[in-house]
């Protein structure tokens, strides 16, 4: 059985919910929205990618880091916490996200005009104060609203960052379940990915459950 939870990458609430989910389901397998390179960067603290790549990605990291500095939890730390917790409790860990190098390569092919527009939007977010409560995981309605807005305003970026990775993670989870039909699997993914996994996994296996943190 698969249990999917949506988290926020910069919210301390995610840490509490990870603990609650693992205690509730006592899973044999924990699946994470990570790839090996990203995990290695989190483990070593040596994320040199923040100094390179498209300006959109650099601004996105700065924006996430700004939020993380307010909440005390830096981007990706909830996934790293789940990784260490799982290993410490002798649970198998599987990484279900697309290789970050593939994602970066595809982002490079997005129209320049769209990336400039997105960069300006992120730059405004770095300078102007926001009204979003970054200390908690956003509710489903807000997540879906933001996803719709991103798809409308930045369709190329949405396709690479959301749609294509949604497919990768869904197929990865299906494969894990096929290989471990009798195991309980808990997956932690960003809240924005949760709905797609819910729809796809509900058709794949009626035993799968998808839960979000409210």
Structure explained in plain terms:
The two termini are 22 Å apart. The chain has one domain (2-212). The protein is built from 9 helices and 5 strands; from the N terminus they run βαβαααβααααβαβ. The chain has helices at 12-25, 36-44, 55-71, 77-88, 100-107, 112-127, 140-153, 155-179, 194-204; strands at 2-7, 29-32, 92-95, 185-190, 209-212. The longest helix is centred in the C-terminal third of the chain and has 25 residues, at 155-179. It is of the alpha/beta class. Helices cover 59% and strands 11% of the residues. It is globular. Helix 3 runs parallel beside helix 6, helix 7 crosses helix 8 (155-179) and helix 8 (155-179) runs parallel beside helix 9. Strands 3-2-4-1-5 form a 5-stranded parallel beta sheet, with helices on both faces.
Give a quick rundown of the structure.
With 214 residues, the chain is an alpha/beta fold.
Break the fold down into its secondary structure elements and pairings.
Blueprint lengths: L1 E6 L4 H14 L3 E4 L3 H9 L10 H17 L5 H12 L3 E4 L4 H8 L4 H16 L12 H14 L1 H25 L5 E6 L3 H11 L4 E4 L2
Parallel strand pairs: 1-4, 1-5, 2-3, 2-4
Helix pairs in contact: 3-6, 7-8, 8-9
Task: Specify the number of helices.
Answer: 9
Percent in strands: 5-15%
- Average the pLDDT over all residues and give the rounded result: 80
**Cα Rg:** 17 Å
Distance between the termini: 22 Å
Number of strands: 5
Which consecutive residue ranges, at least 5 long each, have pLDDT under 50?
Answer: 68-72
Instruction: Estimate the global geometry from the Cα principal axes.
Output: globular
Order of helices and strands: EHEHHHEHHHHEHE
Q: What is the multimeric organization of the chains shown?
A: single chain
> How many structural domains are formed by the residues?
1
Strand order of the largest sheet: 3-2-4-1-5
- Main sheet: strands, sense, barrel: 5 strands, parallel
Summing up helix and strand content along with how strands pair, one would put the structural category as: alpha/beta
Helical percent range? 55-70%
């Amino acid at each position: 059985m698969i249990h999917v939870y949506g988290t926020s990458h910069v919210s301390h609430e995610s840490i509490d919910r990870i603990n609650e989910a693992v205690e509730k389901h006592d899973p044999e397998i924990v699946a994470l929205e990570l790839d090996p390179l990203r995990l290695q960067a989190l483990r070593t603290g040596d994320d040199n990618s923040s100094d390179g790549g498209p300006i959109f990605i650099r601004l996105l990291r700065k924006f996430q880091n700004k939020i993380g500095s307010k909440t005390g939890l830096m981007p990706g730390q909830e996934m790293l916490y789940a990784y260490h917790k799982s290993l410490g409790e002798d649970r198998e860990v599987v990484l279900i996200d697309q290789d970050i190098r593939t994602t970066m390569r595809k982002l490079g092919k997005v129209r320049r005009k769209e990336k400039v527009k997105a960069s300006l939007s992120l730059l405004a977010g770095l300078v102007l104060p926001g009204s979003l409560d970054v200390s908690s995981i956003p509710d489903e309605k807000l997540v879906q609203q933001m996803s719709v807005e991103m798809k409308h305003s930045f369709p190329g970026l949405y396709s690479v960052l959301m749609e294509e990775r949604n497919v990768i993670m869904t197929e990865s989870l299906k494969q894990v379940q096929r290989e471990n039909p009798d195991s309980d699997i808990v997956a932690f993914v960003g809240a924005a990915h949760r709905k797609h996994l819910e729809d796809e996994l509900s058709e794949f296996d009626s035993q799968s459950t998808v839960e979000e943190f409210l």
